[in-house]
């Protein structure tokens, strides 16, 4: 494999699951990169210039050229550096992986956000809806160590959002959205993830993360008063 | 053994049109099965149990869901002829970015334009024009979004073209006035057999929308 002079920079945010998943991919591939913490409330000129359409993190800059949208970034990383493949080879398996990745981001994430953002009956409904979606993920894990099969893959990396964001929010939100009795496979999968060095290295430190989530929720409550 | 390709689809869907165009571009014979979305068939529910939506591409009995995922699957499974995505990873990423943009930013406002009234409808129209202008800026003076060859982003967007008439009527605006390059692009695409075969006539869509509104219970 040819040696290339690479400059890889990630515009991200330490507590964002979308940013962290890119870090997981880069670390899995053994790629050195420069991480630039972005202030979302006060967006840098570099961020605005690199992602003028959405003005959001994460943005990967490879030799100065920007790539935006975390799922697009993950595929770009996988295609550019072919060691430790993230996506499967077979076109059908790839289509399935892409389907579940979108499911996590477009269904689970969107619904789970309502658990944090709503109160009372609306919150209960959001919990129910999230659980219904997670039941589908639970089914996918039966007989598998990871969503990707025997080893960590594309969907696992994307679904760290469930393992280390949704499930961590439970502590702060005071609702066990993902109880172990209802979701034994998901709980087993989280343990498997925590055994993977790259994951341990790349997820936000728990205490700091919980404090951050608490602070955000408090500020959301203040806004709704 | 010959490939068996079935497409569960709904004729006015701009998402279904993507898959139709992709299959036609690759000259793949497929069995088009019109679905009644108000009375979902057992095969639809079985093949897309998660979303219960069209389009569903069934290849030798195995379902692929989500239109852009289907377009990529078609490109990867039948690699001969016209490649929808460039071979360079950076160019591919740009194409996927714009496909995602169309899904996230262009579709939503269209529902407000034909489905809502007053301020909501106006907001939808304004948003839609803004998003089209972003796309037009990305197109620039190129023949197609990918350059000289018809590809992924063109396929992602072209289905919206047959909806333009009804959107203009509902929103009281002219897309050609706002985005002339985009209209020129669409007309170029319509000259392709794959596109002409896959898109219904604009006036069919225009006649259909009031019926659709009645069916879903909005005036």
Automatic annotation (TrEMBL), chain A:
Keyword Transmembrane helix applies: no
EC number: 2.5.1.18
Matching CDD domains: GST_C_Tau (cd03185), GST_N_Tau (cd03058)
One record GO biological process: toxin catabolic process
Catalysis: reaction(s): RX + glutathione = an S-substituted glutathione + a halide anion + H(+)
Signal peptide location: none
Domain annotation GST C-terminal: ranges: 90-219
GO CC aspect terms: cytosol
Occurrences of domain GST N-terminal (ranges): 6-85
Keyword field: Cytoplasm, Detoxification, Transferase
Location in the cell: Cytoplasm, Cytosol
InterPro entries reported in the protein's UniProt record: Glutathione-S-Trfase_C-like, Glutathione-S-Trfase_C_sf, Glutathione_S-Trfase, Glutathione_S-Trfase_N, GST_C, GST_C_Tau, Omega/Tau-like, Thioredoxin-like_sf
Enzyme class: transferase
Pfam families xrefs: GST_C, GST_N_3
A single MF term (Gene Ontology): glutathione transferase activity
Superkingdom of origin organism: Eukaryota
PANTHER family: GLUTATHIONE S-TRANSFERASE U7, GLUTATHIONE S-TRANSFERASE, GST, SUPERFAMILY, GST DOMAIN CONTAINING
UniProt family annotation: Belongs to the GST superfamily. Tau family.
Name by which UniProt lists this protein: glutathione transferase
Annotated source species: Brassica napus
């Amino acid at each position: 494999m040819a040696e290339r002079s690479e400059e890889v920079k990630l515009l991200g945010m330490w507590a964002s699951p979308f940013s962290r998943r890119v870090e997981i991919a880069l670390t899995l591939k053994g790629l050195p990169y420069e991480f630039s913490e972005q202030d979302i409330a006060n967006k840098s000129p570099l961020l605005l210039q690199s992602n003028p359409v959405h003005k959001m993190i994460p943005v990967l800059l490879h030799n100065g050229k920007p790539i935006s949208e975390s799922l697009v970034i993950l595929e770009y990383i996988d295609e550019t550096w072919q060691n430790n493949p993230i996506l499967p080879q077979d076109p059908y398996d790839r289509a399935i992986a892409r389907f579940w990745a979108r499911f996590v981001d477009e269904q689970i994430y969107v619904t789970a956000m309502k658990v944090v953002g709503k109160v009372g009956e609306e919150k209960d409904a959001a919990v129910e809806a999230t659980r219904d979606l997670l039941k589908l993920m639970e089914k996918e894990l039966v007989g598998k160590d990871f969503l990707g099969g025997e080893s960590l893959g594309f969907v696992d990396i994307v679904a760290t959002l469930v393992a280390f964001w949704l499930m961590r929010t439970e502590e702060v939100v005071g609702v066990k959205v993902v109880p172990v009795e209802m979701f034994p496979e998901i709980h087993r999968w989280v343990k498997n993830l925590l055994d993977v060095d790259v994951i341990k290295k790349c997820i936000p430190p728990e205490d700091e993360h919980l404090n951050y989530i608490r602070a955000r929720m408090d500020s959301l409550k203040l806004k709704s008063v | 053994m010959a490939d068996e390709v079935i497409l569960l689809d709904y004729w006015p869907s701009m998402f279904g049109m993507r898959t139709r165009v992709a299959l036609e571009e690759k000259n793949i014979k497929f069995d088009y099965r019109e679905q009644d979305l108000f009375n979902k068939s057992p095969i639809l529910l079985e093949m897309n149990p998660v979303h219960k939506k069209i389009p569903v591409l069934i290849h030798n009995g195995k379902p692929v869901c989500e239109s852009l995922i289907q377009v990529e699957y078609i490109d990867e499974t039948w690699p001969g002829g016209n490649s929808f995505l460039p071979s360079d990873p950076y160019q591919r990423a740009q194409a996927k970015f714009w496909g995602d943009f169309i899904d996230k930013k262009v579709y939503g406002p269209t529902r407000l334009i034909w489905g809502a009234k007053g301020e909501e409808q106006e907001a939808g129209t304004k948003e839609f024009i803004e998003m089209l202008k972003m796309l037009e800026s990305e197109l620039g003076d190129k023949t197609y979004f990918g350059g000289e060859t018809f590809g992924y982003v063109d396929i992602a967007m072209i289905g919206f073209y047959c909806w333009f008439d009804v959107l203009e009527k509902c929103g009281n605006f002219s897309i050609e006035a706002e985005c002339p390059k985009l209209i020129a692009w669409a007309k170029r695409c319509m000259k392709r057999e794959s596109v002409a075969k896959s898109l219904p006539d604009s006036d069919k869509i225009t006649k259909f929308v009031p019926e659709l509104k009645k069916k879903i219970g909005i005036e």
